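Exam revision sheet. Question 4 asks you to relate a sequence to its structure. Input first:
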Amino acid sequence: MLEELESYVKAGRIASTVRKSIRGIVREGGSILKLCEDIENTIRSLGGEPAFPCNVGVNYVAAHYTSPINDESIIPPNSIVKVDFGVHVNGCIADTAITINFNPELNFLVEAVEEALERAIESIKPGVKYSDIGSIVENTVRRYGCKPIRNLCGHSMDRYQIHAGVSIPNIHSINLGRFGVDGVYAIEPFTTVQNADGEVVDGPPGNIYRLLKLKPPRSSLARNLFELIKSKCYTLPFTPRWFIKALSNRDFNEAFKSLIGSKHVLSYPILIEKSKMPIAQAEHTVVISNGNVVVTTK
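Answer key, structure tokens:
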């Protein structure tokens, strides 16, 4: 566990450094593709690897959007922007997110979600119920006149696994699970305005995928791409723009289409607020080791 703990702490330190730089690089009119690539390349330059493609969620987009190849999208004026990214070191993950707001009328959403995250983390220790964290998050955001997103949760993590089976609710719930003396968790409240539906639904694919099968495909062209993805990401999410330069455009498109057709690759849909109301998010990673609680991404 000591070696793993060192990797988790290193991943968190890299994530923290990147997180602190985000306010300076997110700007109205800025390229979303450049933002994603700058964050991912900074992670690599600091000695980590992206644990998943950088997510940029504008306004009512909650999660799972990353820029495709040649994306021309920009950060719109007067928008609220979630930047969610992860770092891994030897498969040990740090997952964190921050909201940058260009609409002063929505500042209360950011204040609510940041306080909810802070209060939730302060309450985590071995033996605490997961449901207690959900109650803290909901109570906090409702004091601001906000509404939590009821079907988005925090989650446990494991090596090369972003979602390792445990969900940490953001609302009052009946959840019998408790934090143990060891474990890695992403705590991530989401909140929206009071008159929103308060639920996310699936939108179109968001350019994020992961390997679903680890047995190579039969096609030699698809197998080459499969082995490259597996060697770089294993079971962690990826985006095609990370691998497009490995093959010609035609060969890449043919190989990737084959991997999707054979169900070797799973696509993540963009998650959008059902009533298309603005969302704020905040997230940190908590590692509990021998009963000691460490927030690795602060």
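Marking note for examiners. Residues 204-270 form a domain with the Arc Repressor Mutant, subunit A fold (CATH 1.10.10.10).
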